[in-house]
Design goal:
Elements lengths: L1 H20 L10 E7 L11 E5 L4 E5 L8 E4 L6 E4 L15 E4 L4 E5 L8 E4 L6 E4 L14 E5 L4 E5 L8 E3 H4 L13
Antiparallel strand pairs: 1-2, 1-10, 2-3, 3-4, 5-6, 6-7, 7-8, 9-10, 10-11, 11-12
């Protein structure tokens, strides 16, 4: 009689703990994770540097050496090492859904979609690739205001770049590949 009672108590304790294992509400999958953090008082525009901040993991992505994948790392600091270029080269306020080339001033190279053996399919390029757009699903026609949280879309991948756990390379995934990876215990198999 004690064994069935003990099993029932253990089962009850496990069931009671299940809500604690669930991802917090802030971990709901979303592609609107990115903020362009310009210097205070600076209007978000091409031709100026900014930090590419991910609100999901509370870090900015910056250039940094790594063994696998593209040389990008997460940093708690503010490096403002990114800039955007329009196809016509004009300096103008950032517009949602417009395509830009994404440049890293530290590495002196452009980021574009490219197949690779390990990590997220991103590569460095010596020439601009106008394939990045900031998207706000609730207000797509407005300019990108300071502090806005947007989705970062890549036209070549046809997908949104998001934070997601990976076994090697920076923890970035494409939205359609990685929304299930948003939990702290998940990881994409392989590299």
């Amino acid at each position: 009689m004690v064994a069935p009672m003990r099993k029932a108590l253990v089962l009850l304790a496990v069931l009671a703990a299940l809500p604690l294992l669930a991802a917090p509400a802030s971990a709901e999958p979303t592609s609107e994770q990115w903020e362009t953090r310009f210097a205070p008082g600076r209007t978000p525009s091409t031709g100026h540097t900014f930090s590419l901040f991910n609100a999901f993991n509370d870090r900015e992505v910056r250039y940094g050496a790594r063994e696998h994948g593209i040389n990008l790392v997460w940093s708690p600091g503010t490096t403002r090492e990114w800039s955007l270029r329009r196809r016509d080269g004009a300096v103008a306020p950032l517009a949602r859904n417009a395509r830009y080339a994404l440049y890293n001033v530290t590495n002196r190279a452009w980021v574009r979609y490219g197949e690779r053996d390990t990590g997220i399919n991103l590569v460095w390029s010596s020439t601009p690739a106008y394939e990045w757009a900031f998207v706000d699903f609730s207000d797509p026609a407005t300019p990108v205001p300071a502090g806005a949280r947007d989705a970062l879309h890549n036209a070549v991948a046809g997908d949104y770049l998001i934070y997601g756990h990976r076994n090697c390379g920076i923890n970035l995934v494409w939205f359609t590949d990685g929304i299930q990876m948003q939990t702290p215990w998940g990881a994409i198999a392989g590299c």
